[in-house]
Amino acid sequence: MSLLLETPRPRPVVARWTVGDVVTIGNVRWLIRWAAGDVVILASTNRSNGACVWETTRDRLPTKGTR
């Protein structure tokens, strides 16, 4: 069958983390403060011993919609 006659398949929609989203990793909630490309800067929101900032990449974050 010709490739021109095949119906194109839609790409799956992938949810991406954006600035302002809260990511839970372990028992710490992280607020995404800045994101550009694959680089993400997170700030902890529920640590009793002070705020902590963490720089990582999007592929290291859990899948959006899971805990």
Describe the protein.
- The protein has 67 residues and is mostly beta strands.
- The chain has a domain at 22-60.
- It is 0% helix and 36% strand.
- The protein has no helices and four strands.
- It has strands at 22-25, 28-36, 39-44, 53-57.
- The protein has a four-stranded antiparallel β-sheet with strand order 1-2-3-4, with no helix packed on it.
- Strand 2 (28-36) and strand 3 (39-44) form a beta hairpin.
- The radius of gyration is 17 Å and the shape is elongated.
- The termini are far apart.
Secondary structure elements and pairings:
Blueprint: E1 22-25, E2 28-36, E3 39-44, E4 53-57
Antiparallel strand pairs: 1-2, 2-3, 3-4
Q: What is the CA–CA distance across the termini?
A: 44 Å
Please give the count of helices: 0
Q: Write down the secondary-structure element order.
A: EEEE
Radius of gyration: 17 Å
> Average pLDDT value?
84
Poorly predicted spans = none
Descriptors:
single chain; 67 residues; mainly beta; four-stranded antiparallel β-sheet; 0% helix
Short overview:
The chain has a domain of 39 residues.
